[in-house]
Design brief:
This protein is an all-alpha fold and about 80 residues long. The chain has 2 domains: about 35 residues, no CATH class; about 40 residues, no CATH class. It is about 40% helix and about 0% strand. The protein contains 4 helices and no strands.
């Protein structure tokens, strides 16, 4: 997805479809695709069982799911359930 944005930014493509979370850059104009034209894309967070930093990862997840974290996610185009 990032590569599609890079092609648009550099002028090697006239248009591209990318996630809203990465589309908000000064070099491009973006337009939202009508939400009725595609199924909801559900994303999730995980903490790896083998992580050596589970406590830190848990703190991040807790922050992302907090009121302040949800505001930040929504600012980047995510709909928080």
């Amino acid at each position: 997805m990032r590569q599609a944005l890079q092609f648009v930014q550099t002028g090697n493509a006239e248009a591209g479809i990318v996630a809203l979370s990465i589309a908000k850059v000064p070099e491009v104009n973006y337009f939202l695709v009508d939400e009725n034209l595609y199924p909801l894309i559900k994303q999730t967070m995980v903490i790896l069982k083998k992580s050596g930093k589970k406590k830190l990862a848990k703190e991040f997840v807790d922050f992302a799911l907090s009121k302040k974290g949800k505001i930040i996610l929504e600012r980047f185009g995510y709909k928080v359930m």
